[in-house]
Write a structure and sequence with these properties.
The protein is mainly alpha-helical. It contains 20 helices and four strands. The N terminus is likely disordered. The structure holds zinc ion.
């Protein structure tokens, strides 16, 4: 009986992401990160950093890096109860071999070995300055579909060229969505997935690029206990692991005198912090009570699966609708330099910044975003086009007219609806403004020690 229930929740959750190809938490992380770090004097006034190829950095610090990664692994094993230990065979060793240092490093931190790390800065498309070469999206991302990256221009940097810390961090904050967390589980059809030790993917769609990165970018820490009882696999997620790893790597790079990689690893960690500020990334089925989830599941077990299929499709569509809306609004506000825009204002003006602790991503950040999931879901249902968010026969990914979502909301519900949605978006991102700053300050504090 219990096994059957588990299987059904697996099915429920697995299906949840099957349509979620374009779902990447917040769209355009650089636009979210830039207002946060640009208003921190610790970052904005820091000296320009010299761009260093990853291989050169790694080779220069191999011995110390091996020690750092051993300590990091020990930390994860003793602090993350659900953590799948890194197989000892993948431990980083200093060999001095320049040929494979990059591959050895990627395997030791268990990211996709095909991850690209060119030297470059990202800017909104057509806003890149100067006459430098622009990189093709395929040069920064190892994903098969890079069409969504057309929103940005990627300006190449030469080794040794100086870049501003704000730009390096903002650029890097998009990179975890470029494929580094794709294909890492045994059921993802990759050779490295067989040896990384992460086992079978707990949730998300293992067959899709974006689906397979889900457990690294989403964390369900605050569901009702009964949900975890029936579906303990929901705990098998890795945002906290990535956040800690990239923080350690960032502090390490600064201490080793390589500010460029200090800022870039910081950007990687900030990506995951921002992901956890997104209510749909910390909540299994936003807008559904625990009782309703269990009821839907029970009916599904009895052979009545329509309610479950509907719930899965609706949540997927709402997730995509709010991200599409947010991406459009933020790109507009950034292009027009709208400092009064509530989201930009929330990102630029944080309230009090609490000291960072390793439990903050879960206990403070994800808790707060999870707590607003039902409210956000309600506003989405109320104001967004019903065909997009309340019709389970629609697959929103197949509706290109979703790019008109802002105009459709305004035409149907007026400026008040836009204001309400903007406020909710600002509220969620203000969580990142607070905890992202706290993360940055902790890194810089430790690096200076
Ligand atoms: Zn992400």
């Amino acid at each position: 009986m219990k096994k059957r229930v588990i299987i059904n929740i697996v099915a429920l959750h697995g299906a949840l992401f099957c349509c979620a190809q374009a779902v990447v938490a917040w769209e355009h992380h650089p636009l979210v990160t830039e207002p946060v770090v640009a208003t921190m004097p610790e970052v904005a006034e820091a000296p320009l950093a010299e761009a260093v190829p990853l291989e050169a950095f790694l080779l220069a610090v191999e011995e110390d890096l091996a020690e750092l990664l051993a300590r990091e692994e020990a930390w994860a094993r003793s602090n993350l109860s659900w953590y799948a230990p890194r197989p000892d065979a993948l431990a980083f060793e200093a060999t001095g071999n320049a040929e494979d240092v990059r591959d050895r490093f990627f395997r030791a931190i268990r990211i996709n070995p095909n991850t690209k790390t060119p030297l470059y800065l990202a800017a909104l498309a057509d806003e890149a300055e100067g006459a430098k070469r622009l990189l093709d999206p395929g040069e920064v991302s190892n994903l098969e579909d890079t069409s969504w990256l057309s929103a940005f221009d990627f300006t190449e940097l030469s080794p040794g060229e100086l870049a501003s810390p704000v730009d390096i961090v903002a650029t890097a904050s998009n990179e975890p969505d470029y494929g580094m967390d794709v294909g890492l589980f045994t059921d993802n059809g990759t050779d490295f997935g067989q040896v990384f030790g992460f086992g079978v993917q707990a949730f998300g769609n293992p067959a899709l690029d974006y689906g397979s990165q889900a457990p690294f970018h989403m964390g369900f820490y605050h569901e009702a206990r009964i949900v975890f009882l029936f579906a303990p696999f929901l705990k098998e997620s890795y945002p906290e692991h990535r956040i800690h790893l990239f923080k350690s790597l960032s502090e390490f790079a600064f201490r080793q005198g390589c500010d460029y990689w200090g800022w870039r690893f910081m950007g990687w960690g900030l990506h995951t912090m921002a992901d956890l500020s997104m209510p749909y990334h910390t909540t299994v089925l936003p807008g559904y009570s625990t009782l309703r989830m269990l009821w839907i599941n029970l009916l599904d077990m009895l052979g009545f699966s329509r309610l479950k299929d509907n719930a899965v499709q609706l949540v997927s569509n709402r997730h995509m609708a709010i991200e599409t809306y947010q991406g459009i609004m933020l790109a507009r506000a950034s292009r027009n330099d709208e400092e009064a825009d509530p989201t930009i204002a929330a990102l630029r003006q944080p309230r009090q910044i609490p000291p960072y602790t390793d439990s903050a991503p879960r206990k403070a950040l994800a808790r707060s975003s999870n707590a607003m999931a039902a409210r956000l879901d309600k506003a989405i249902k109320r104001y967004m086009p019903a065909q997009f968010v309340s019709d389970p026969s629609v697959e929103l990914a197949d509706r290109p007219e979703r790019s008109q979502i802002v105009e459709m909301i305004e035409a149907a519900h007026g400026a008040r609806a836009i204001a309400t949605l903007n406020c909710l978006q600002a509220e969620a991102l203000s969580l990142f403004a607070v905890h992202g700053r706290s993360y940055v300050l902790a890194i810089l504090g430790n690096a200076a020690r």
